[in-house]
Design goal:
The chain is of the alpha/beta class and 317 residues long. The protein has two domains: 2-62; 85-314, Ribonuclease H-like superfamily/Ribonuclease H (Nucleotidyltransferase, domain 5, 2-Layer Sandwich). It has eleven helices and six strands. Helix 8 (179-185) crosses helix 10 (215-242), helix 9 packs antiparallel against helix 10 and helix 10 (215-242) runs antiparallel to helix 11 (252-262).
């Protein structure tokens, strides 16, 4: 799939890419030593195209996902998901919502068919250890929000692996808006108990857990964060289905069954405000989101050593 990309090659825009495909060029490996007739590229320009195609071949053989995350045009980013999606980790965070001083409260990660959750003052630091085993992080709007917050929370200069922001993939697929709206437009509405839950309520749920010790509020918050990564996986699968990537269709029943099995919804009665409890007060303004294991191939070639069991907490009620 990824070798079908052409638009990142120098001098190749939509018109020339369409012309190449008309001539039977399905991707950069099909490029000949001389430019096809009618492409209107001189020898020097064609040499630059072939040089970039050679770099793509090297990156492909080395399994260098980061190279393609940096190189591919927005309309071809879906190819990264098609090629490397089975190795990706879907990540989302929640914060306490204080503008400028927001702290990460919950991290959810779906990786290798397993759901992991990390909670502040419980096991949040374990996420860094898990991150060392991950080859590709996928977020929604993470370029503006999740990734900077993670870097700040853990005092690290950059992620140890490439990052793909699914929001860009969605935009080029004609899907705009927030993640929940896109899920619904694709026929993947969230379970009833999470309908209407948003970032503002996530802040309140955290307050009720920290100030009142309400376990059900904590559990709903963790479930809400986990729903984002499960939804990310579903949206990615639906987009690949539209791109004819040869993957099975995503059904809402199958998608949300993973979430319900790992993190069943807390009883509504347990979420009621305790009688006589101190009011949580107004929520701070939510931080904006600007609109056994086997060796794993490293991005630049070679293999990682035998991994220990993935850290963190596999999601459980």
């Amino acid at each position: 799939m990824i070798r079908g990309a052409l638009l990142h090659l120098p001098g190749i825009g939509p018109v020339r890419a369409a012309r190449l495909r008309q001539l039977g060029v399905t991707g950069w490996p099909d490029l000949a030593s001389r430019p096809p007739a009618g492409l209107h590229l001189g020898p020097a320009a064609w040499e630059a195209v072939l040089a970039e195609a050679a770099r793509c071949d090297e990156a492909y053989e080395a399994g260098d996902i980061g190279f393609f995350c940096r190189r591919l045009c927005g309309c071809d980013l879906w190819r990264i998901l098609a090629q490397y999606g089975r190795r990706a980790a879907y990540v989302d965070i929640e914060t306490d919502g204080l503008l400028g001083t927001a702290r990460v409260t919950v991290i959810a990660c779906y990786w290798q068919d397993r759901l992991y959750t990390f909670v502040q003052d419980e096991n949040l630091d374990d996420f860094l250890e898990l991150l060392e085993h991950i080859e590709l992080v996928v977020t929604y709007n993470g370029t503006c929000f999740d990734v900077p917050m993670i870097l700040r929370a853990f005092h690290i200069p950059e992620l140890p692996c490439p990052h793909l922001d699914l929001r860009r993939v969605c935009t080029h697929a004609g899907l705009r808006g927030g993640l929940k709206a896109i899920e619904a437009s694709l026929g993947l509405p969230r379970p009833p108990d999470l309908q209407g839950v948003d970032g503002a309520e996530a802040v309140l749920l955290w307050q009720r857990w920290r100030r009142q010790g309400q376990r059900a509020a904590r559990d709903r918050l963790v479930r809400y964060c986990a729903a984002d990564v499960v939804g990310l996986r579903g949206v990615g699968g639906a987009i690949l289905g539209r791109c004819d990537a040869g993957l099975p269709a995503v059904s809402p029943e199958t998608l949300w069954a993973d979430l319900d099995e790992a993190l069943p919804p807390p009883a509504e009665a347990d979420l009621a405000e305790p009688a006589g409890s101190p009011a949580a007060g107004p929520a701070p303004a939510a931080a904006p989101r600007p609109m056994g294991p086997r060796p794993v191939e490293r991005a630049g070639g070679g293999r990682r050593p035998e991994a220990r069991p993935a850290p963190g907490r596999p999601a459980s009620p």
